[in-house]
């Protein structure tokens, strides 16, 4: 009887504190927002766990005091994620409270009974016992890594489009000097996650070395290290018309915007995509809503209707190569300057990652794919693009030498902490071009949302792997 009375008093005390926390968290939600509710929930969870393990009233009160001290350290994020976190957190708190109170009311089972019932537990409860290392490996296999058959299907569709575009340009514009076209991007480099849904069709232009010069961004009036220009040389000795590309000159420079506009009219609007799609058992149509040259390819079923499978997007990308320098015609990145070309750092970054992993059999690429999958699946982290994540790992590799597969959990947690620091500073500089801030395109609201979500993941990184 004494034991039951003590247990009941402890249960009532914990219930009162839980109800007080929840009611006040909802009150704060209206004033301070979902951020304080999300972090306060972690303190409530620890409070419940500690109270459940306590054997007498003194220990319950001591643990309550410790949890209140943790809660007092919580500060709300300046920008709040009300739409997602509010409902998730309230449901999580209610579920956890109900479960823990039920556990408090039940007598403790013997160790033999616990071991005998291990195999009968639901899978969800068994997953909770996994370590972070095991959770990361599981997340990589189920979410980040792609099915080889899915990758082959997407590559085959992209190669078919490459063949069709190459044949069209060769027959309609045989005098256009082009190098060999190919497929590139993350699909080819095994860096795509979640689903194989996009690829790049690289269209390299062939320039006469004596008539053209690639001008680095720092030497132009734009002074942007990623915005290069292509200057026409010796125009007084070799007047306009000597080069095929002179027709796209604007102010003495080869205009990327004029070239993309021509490709849009000559390829995207002229090619008979319905006929090509019927021969490939696909529905092919130019994607609307952007300045890039993008095709949407949707597989068809036996009845000739869209099968509902994930469509594949193929972007036609005109580019220039000179040594290690790759310039792409992407007006969406260089606007409003019509003559600017974008310096692509993707080949340098990808090559460096592969070299580092090959040298020590490291897990850098695996870490990158996990981070990309996490950002793509999490609404608050979705604005984070791949380039900052790649450079985050490259910067970390300069300081950390152990990238073995057994240290995957340590490096993952370290990436979260490092990324929070970069977001606080508002700058993550490129590994190869330190003058470039890779977070410059993010708004203040996006930075706040991502920073808060990552801050919550510092103590419980598993919330990113749901």
UniProtKB/TrEMBL annotation:
Q: Taking every annotated instance into account, which residue ranges of this chain make up the domain Mab-21-like HhH/H2TH-like? A: 363-450
Q: Lineage of this protein's species?
A: Eukaryota, Metazoa, Chordata, Craniata, Vertebrata
Task: Report the GO terms under cellular component.
Answer: mitochondrial outer membrane
What protein is this chain from?
Mitochondrial elongation factor 1
Fetch the SMART domains from UniProt. Answer: Mab-21
Q: Per its UniProt entry, which superkingdom is the organism in?
A: Eukaryota
Topology relative to the membrane: Single-pass membrane protein
User: Which Gene3D superfamilies does this one have?
Assistant: 1.10.1410.40, 3.30.460.90
InterPro entries reported in the protein's UniProt record: Mab-21_HhH/H2TH-like, MAB21L/cGLR, MID49/MID51, MID51-like_C
């Amino acid at each position: 009887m004494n034991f039951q009375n003590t247990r009941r008093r402890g249960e009532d005390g914990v219930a009162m504190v839980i109800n007080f926390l929840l009611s006040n968290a909802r009150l704060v939600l209206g004033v301070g927002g979902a951020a304080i509710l999300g972090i306060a929930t972690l303190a409530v969870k620890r409070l419940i766990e500690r109270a459940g393990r306590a054997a007498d009233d003194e220990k319950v009160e001591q643990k309550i005091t410790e949890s209140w001290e943790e809660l007092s350290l919580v500060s709300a994020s300046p920008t709040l994620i009300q739409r997602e976190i509010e409902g998730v957190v309230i449901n999580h708190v209610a579920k956890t409270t109900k479960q823990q109170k039920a556990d408090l009311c039940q007598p403790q089972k013997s160790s033999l009974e616990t071991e005998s019932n291990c195999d009968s537990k639901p899978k969800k409860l068994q997953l909770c016992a996994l370590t972070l290392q095991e959770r990361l490996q599981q997340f990589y296999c189920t979410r980040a890594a792609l099915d080889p058959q899915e990758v082959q299907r997407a590559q085959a569709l992209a190669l078919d489009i490459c063949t069709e575009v190459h044949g069209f340009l060769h027959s309609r514009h045989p005098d256009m000097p082009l190098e060999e076209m190919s497929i590139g991007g993350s699909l080819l480099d095994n860096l795509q996650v979640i689903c194989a849904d996009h690829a790049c069709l690289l269209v390299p232009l062939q320039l006469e070395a004596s008539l053209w010069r690639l001008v680095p961004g720092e030497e132009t009036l734009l002074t942007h290290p990623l915005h290069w220009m292509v200057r026409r040389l010796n125009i007084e000795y070799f007047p306009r018309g000597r080069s095929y590309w002179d027709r796209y000159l604007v102010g003495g420079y080869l205009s990327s915007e004029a070239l993309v506009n021509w490709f849009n009219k000559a390829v995207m609007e002229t090619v008979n995509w319905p006929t090509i799609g019927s021969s490939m058992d696909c529905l092919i149509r130019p994607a609307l809503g952007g300045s890039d040259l993008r095709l949407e390819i949707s597989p068809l079923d036996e009845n000739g209707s869209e099968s509902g499978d994930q469509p594949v997007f193929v972007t036609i990308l005109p580019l220039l190569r000179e040594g290690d320098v790759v310039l792409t015609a992407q007006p969406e990145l260089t606007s409003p300057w019509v003559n600017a070309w974008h310096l692509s750092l993707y080949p340098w970054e990808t090559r460096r990652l592969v070299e580092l992993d090959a040298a020590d059999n490291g897990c850098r690429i695996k870490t990158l794919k996990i981070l990309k999958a996490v950002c793509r699946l999490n609404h608050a982290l979705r604005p984070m693009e791949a380039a900052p994540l790649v450079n985050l790992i490259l910067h970390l590799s300069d300081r950390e030498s152990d990238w073995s597969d057994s240290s995957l959990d340590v490096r993952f947690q370290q990436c979260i902490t490092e990324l929070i620091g970069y977001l606080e500073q508002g700058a993550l500089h490129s590994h190869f071009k330190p003058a470039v801030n890779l977070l410059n395109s993010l708004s203040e609201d996006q930075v706040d949302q991502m920073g808060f979500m990552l801050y919550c993941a510092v103590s419980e990184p598993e919330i990113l792997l749901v």
